[in-house]
Structure formats: structure tokens, C-alpha cells
Amino acid sequence: MNQSKEKENIHHYMAIELNVQIWNLLDKKDRNENDNKRMLFFAKASLHHWRKSPDYKPVNEQRGEWLISHVLAVLNLGDESLRHAKTCMDITMKQSFKGFDLAYAYESKARAYAAIGESEKMKKCFLNAKDSGEKIVGDNDRKIFFDDLYREPWFEYIAE
């Protein structure tokens, strides 16, 4: 394998590996400030590596923006989370993504709005996420989405 192809493959591997590490940190019960910093850095780095992967597609950009928004919302950095959630939704609309990715785009906006205390906008996006989630083809993908949708943090809001 030549060095150029090897370098591209490293980016693909790193994008995936960083994503796995983020989820490990999100699931960690006793996450500390250093873990939070790593989680945010890993989310941004994962998207960077996806952009350099030979297998990069617009859906990688959309999901990368979703993940950054999600991490920021978990860290209660609502304004930044909303900026990435809007970018995620813009990509979703431009690419005409449906199902799984549309549901997650709405979820990211709902969670970001919750983080900044915008309850009416949060509820609207949450209901759109729920409705889109019901249309996800494939039981496993639908279950993954709803498990994520009902995962904390929703701050003081009860999103039902």
C-alpha cells in the first residue's frame, strides 16, 4: 500500500475510533472535567478525520455535526450546541435526508433548545424528532434512535 492511501485509511480509522471513544465517555458514570474536554475534542477531531477519509460522504458531515451538537448539549453549552444542530439540519435538508438522519437532526435541535431554556422550540423539535423516528425503516435503527431520544440530559424539561 502506498503512503498516500495509507494516510487516507488512517483518517477513516481515526474517525471511527474517536466516535467509539466519545460514546464510551458519554456512557461513563463518573465523567470528570478532563473527560468532558476529551469528549468535545474527540467529537471535533472525528469530523475532521471523516472529512479526510476516502469514504467521506455528506452523511458523515451531517452525523459529525450532530455528534458535536450532542456533546455540547450534554455539557450544557446550549448556544454552541444549537449552532451545530442548525448546521446538521441545513445539511439534512440540502441532502434530502429522511428517516434516521432526519430524526436525529430534529433531536439535536430539541436538545440544544432544551440546553438554552427555549421550551416551546424544544417541544416542537422534540415532537418532530419523535414523528420522524416513527418513520425510521428498520426496527434496530428505530430502537437506537428512541433509546438516544429518551436519554438525558433534557435538563428540567420532561419531553413526552
Describe this entry's structure for a reader.
This protein is mostly helical and 160 residues long. The protein folds into two domains: 56 residues; 99 residues. It has seven helices and no strands. It starts with a helix and ends in an 11-residue tail after the last helix. The relative contact order is 0.10.
Largest sheet: none
Point out poorly predicted stretches: none
Radius of gyration: 16 Å
Tally of contiguous helical segments = 7
Shape: globular
Helix-residue proportion: over 70%
Indicate the multimeric state.
single chain
How many individual β-strands?
0
- Return the string of H and E elements: HHHHHHH
**What number is the mean pLDDT?**
93
CA-to-CA gap between the ends? Answer: 52 Å
Short description:
With 160 residues, this protein is an all-alpha fold. The protein has seven helices and no strands. The termini are far apart.
